[in-house]
């Protein structure tokens, strides 16, 4: 299986640069995975495809304003920082630009000294470990100084930080949003609950590896990044009950999908658990829990395009993407959605 098998041509103007005013007004391409048939709908009409007894699985992670702009102490040399992972005692793994200026011992200043940092070491992959010093609460300082870490293909400035959060975001920790969830409004979620559809909340903190291109030609040689996930007893119970009663488990986003598939036993049963996963789902994978998926449109040759191809078949997915390009759907994080059932 080659990476180039998952290439498609995308005109630049179809990459959505701004979120729609109404989250649920985005378009929805509905793909029947058994027949390959396609329907063009609006996202708010997703209720027509859900049934009482189904279970939606959502990822309640919260994106932190992880992009910081500062300078090297005493030189005014500009530096940009992206927080990736919190280690311990205010030590973070970060991505620093420009890297040449970021040697161990370098001291950094943000917000006129509201936040200070010192580079401790350079990790194997070039990421820097930084020790931060501040007075007060780190999250409040970050909220004041940080910007949302929008993907590299979005060049517009985001006016409202909350538009890169789902309406159900709870737990700080992501460097990118679980974007399939951006289409839901509180009203739509209430309507879904009122239909008798269960909603199970899991957590997976999305890392920047989600945007990393696959650089090997043989898909099987690609090494996935690892991300922290958590499933509580309530979510495990709701999902197990749904499967036991013959209902469908429909994941909102590839992150929710990877969470439950990584945590499930071979028989599809889930228990409350947490840990790190680097699960890589590509065609040939046998899904243990998931029956359907709500997802955005993914980058050519990406691991996420491989994941949806594992669920619906590569030919069905590539044909659906061809149709989405032809019909001028909006692509990627702030773009339109797909429902695969």
Query: What fold name stands as the CATH topology of the largest domain?
Result: QueA-like
Number of strands: 17
| Name of the CATH architecture of the largest domain | 3-Layer(aba) Sandwich
Portion of residues within helices: 10-25%
Main sheet makeup = 9 strands, mixed
> Overall pLDDT, averaged?
94
Number of domains: 2
Content of β-strand? 25-35%
Rg on CA atoms, Å: 21 Å
Number of helices: 6
Oligomeric nature of the chains: single chain
Q: Whole-Å distance between the termini?
A: 24 Å
Fourth-tier CATH superfamily name of the largest domain: QueA-like
Low-confidence stretches: none
Apparent shape: globular
> According to CATH, what is the class of the largest domain?
Alpha Beta
Provide the structure class: alpha/beta
Order of helices and strands: EEEEEEEEEEHEHEEHEHEEHHE
Main sheet: strand order: 2-1-17-16-14-3-12-13-15
Descriptive account of the structure:
The protein is α/β, with parallel strands linked by helices and about 350 residues long. The protein is built from six helices and 17 strands.
Task: Give a quick summary of the entry.
The chain has helices at 138-145, 186-194, 233-244, 254-263, 303-312, 314-326, and strands spanning 27-31, 38-42, 55-59, 61-63, 67-72, 78-86, 91-97, 107-110, 115-122, 128-134, 171-174, 198-204, 227-231, 249-252, 273-277, 292-296, 337-340. It has 341 residues and is α/β, with parallel strands linked by helices.
């Amino acid at each position: 299986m080659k990476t180039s098998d998952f290439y498609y041509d995308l005109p630049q103007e179809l990459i959505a640069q701004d979120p729609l005013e109404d989250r649920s007004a985005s378009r929805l391409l509905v793909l029947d995975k058994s027949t390959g048939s396609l329907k063009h709908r609006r996202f708010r009409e997703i209720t027509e495809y859900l049934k009482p007894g189904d279970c939606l699985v959502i990822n309640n992670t919260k994106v932190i304003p992880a992009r910081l702009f500062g300078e090297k102490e005493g030189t005014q040399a500009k530096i940009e920082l992206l927080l990736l992972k919190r280690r311990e005692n205010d030590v973070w793994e970060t991505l620093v630009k420009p890297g040449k200026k970021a040697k161990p011992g370098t001291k950094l200043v943000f917000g006129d000294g509201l936040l200070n940092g010192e580079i401790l070491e350079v990790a194997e992959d070039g990421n820097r470990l930084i020790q931060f010093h501040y007075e007060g609460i780190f999250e409040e300082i970050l909220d004041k100084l940080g910007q949302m870490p929008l993907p590299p293909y979005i060049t517009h400035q985001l006016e409202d930080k909350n538009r890169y959060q789902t309406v159900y975001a709870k737990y700080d920790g992501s460097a990118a949003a679980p974007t399939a969830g951006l289409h839901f409004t509180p009203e739509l979620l209430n309507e879904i609950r009122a239909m008798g559809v269960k909603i199970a909340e899991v957590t997976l903190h999305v890392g920047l590896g989600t945007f990393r291109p696959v650089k090997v030609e043989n898909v099987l040689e690609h090494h996935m990044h690892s991300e922290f996930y958590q499933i509580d007893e309530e979510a495990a119970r709701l999902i197990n009950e749904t499967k036991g009663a013959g209902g469908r488990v429909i994941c909102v986003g590839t992150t929710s999908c990877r969470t439950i598939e990584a945590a499930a036993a071979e028989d599809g049963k889930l228990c409350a658990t947490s840990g790190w996963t680097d699960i890589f789902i590509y065609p040939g994978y046998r899904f243990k829990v998931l029956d359907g998926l709500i997802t955005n449109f993914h980058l050519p040759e990406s691991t996420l395009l491989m994941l949806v191809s594992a669920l619906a078949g590569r030919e069905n997915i590539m044909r659906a993407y061809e149709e989405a390009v032809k019909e001028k759907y909006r692509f990627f994080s702030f773009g339109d959605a797909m429902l695969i059932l």
